[in-house]
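Deliverable D2.4 — example input (structure tokens):
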């Protein structure tokens, strides 16, 4: 029998007290690969079942197909393609991918390598003399937002404003109604509006004066799928920013934390920088930034592992649990950068497979290599560190590191 109610295990996973180490609870959850919850939603926790669902055309990413749409459904004006199904999803993704770049075409990301190295170098220069740094505030947080500004073509003088909006939006995603002032939520809503308006303004300008950046290309492209409307461009730019920010922050921070917990691997990376490629894949499996895809909606009744999931049900996919499934990965709780056959679920799978994967990988690879090379004798100040609230996008809120042997 696959369907049992496991409300307690899920409740404990979502509870903040398990944020530092949810993995033993995932193991408990995997005893019931398809678990029906009291509210009628389903939680899927094993590798095979998660992969099957991500490839099943009867599943929708469009919130409007849930029989009980969750909060936020009405807030969406023009949904971005992460929340759309084929054919709309495919059309918009193709149009964005044409310019974004690898793996399918050489695009803007391919030419960004020198910019990535220079941003990383500059951030490390800024904390070179300090005895203690916060890897999140001093490095991992500013890095991806600066990269996305370059990519979109946000003028340098507007970057500080752009950073502030992003901070407010990300802060509001981590909102806790029990402890946080409502102001935090309101700031997030206002920042979303301001950001949309700002990007809309840039798109208008780029119609007349195109540069070599993503917004210009999207605004002026007449490719095989035609042109995106201005609203679609704004929704896409917002998506790239939101989907690509905290995820990358968390991968870099979780990465450094994992290296500091495995000093022999850190030393190997210092001596053998190429190790960073398989090491980054192993991080995406072992300490991934995205732990949960909070919902997919069933278009029709579907059967998963002998369980019938009725049409309209909400399905929650426990990606981080799937990547630790012992039926798929040998010795899954071991951090092993030499692991072969590492088809993790860190970027999802199927038609919504992370669009920014090639960029996120390069950002993380350059960041970790340079941090390990340049930060002298790094040591954790506290372990475990304090985590952000979210069980979905999981990562430390600060990561204090001592350096220079002090
Ligand atoms: C989708 C993870 C970085 C843009 C996804 C999905 C995951 C994911 C798990 C699948 C969501 C689903 O199936 O519903 C990550 C991780 C990242 C990262 C772990 C960093 C380490 C980025 C970056 C960008 C980006 C840097 C863009 C600049 C997107 C977009 C989608 C997506 C646009 C939607 C794709 C679609 O619907 O076709 N990402 N992401 N991501 N990601 Fe990422």
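Example output (designed residues):
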């Amino acid at each position: 029998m696959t369907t049992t109610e496991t409300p307690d295990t899920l409740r404990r996973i979502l509870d903040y007290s398990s944020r530092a180490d949810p993995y033993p609870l995932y193991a408990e959850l995997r005893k019931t690969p398809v678990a029906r919850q009291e509210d009628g939603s389903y939680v899927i926790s094993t590798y095979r079942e998660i992969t099957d669902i991500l490839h099943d055309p009867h599943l929708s990413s469009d919130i409007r197909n849930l029989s009980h749409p969750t909060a936020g459904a009405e807030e969406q004006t023009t949904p971005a393609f992460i929340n759309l199904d084929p054919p709309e999803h495919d059309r918009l993704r193709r149009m964005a991918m044409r310019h974004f770049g690898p793996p399918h075409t050489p695009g803007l990301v391919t030419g960004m390598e020198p910019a990535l190295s220079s941003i990383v170098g500059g951030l490390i220069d800024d904390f070179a003399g300090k005895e203690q740094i916060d890897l999140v505030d001093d490095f991992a947080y500013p890095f991806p937002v600066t990269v996305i500004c370059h990519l979109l073509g946000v003028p340098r003088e507007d970057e500080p404003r752009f950073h502030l909006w992003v901070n407010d939006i990300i802060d509001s995603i981590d909102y806790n109604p029990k402890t946080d002032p409502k102001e935090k939520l309101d700031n997030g809503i206002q920042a979303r509006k301001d950001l949309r308006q700002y990007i809309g303004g840039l798109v208008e300008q780029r119609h007349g004066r195109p540069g070599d950046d993503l917004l210009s290309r999207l605004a002026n492209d007449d490719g095989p799928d035609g042109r995106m409307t201005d609203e679609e461009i704004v929704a896409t730019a917002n998506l790239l920013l939101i989907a690509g920010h905290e995820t990358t922050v968390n991968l870099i921070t979780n990465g450094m934390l994992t290296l500091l917990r495995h000093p022999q691997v850190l030393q190997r990376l210092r001596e053998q920088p190429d190790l960073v490629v398989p090491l980054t894949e192993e991080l995406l499996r072992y300490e991934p930034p995205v732990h949960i895809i909070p919902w997919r909606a069933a278009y029709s009744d579907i059967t998963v592992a002998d369980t019938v999931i009725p049409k309209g049900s909400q399905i929650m996919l426990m990606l981080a649990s799937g990547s630790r499934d012992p039926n798929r990965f040998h010795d899954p709780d071991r951090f092993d950068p030499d692991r072969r056959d590492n088809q993790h679920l860190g970027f999802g799978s199927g038609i919504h497979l992370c669009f920014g994967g090639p960029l996120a990988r390069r950002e993380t690879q350059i960041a970790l290599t340079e941090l390990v090379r340049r930060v002298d004798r790094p040591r954790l100040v506290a372990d475990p560190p304090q985590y952000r609230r979210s069980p979905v996008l999981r990562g430390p809120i600060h990561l204090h590191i001592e350096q220079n042997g002090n």
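Residues 133 and 401 are 5 Å apart (CA to CA).
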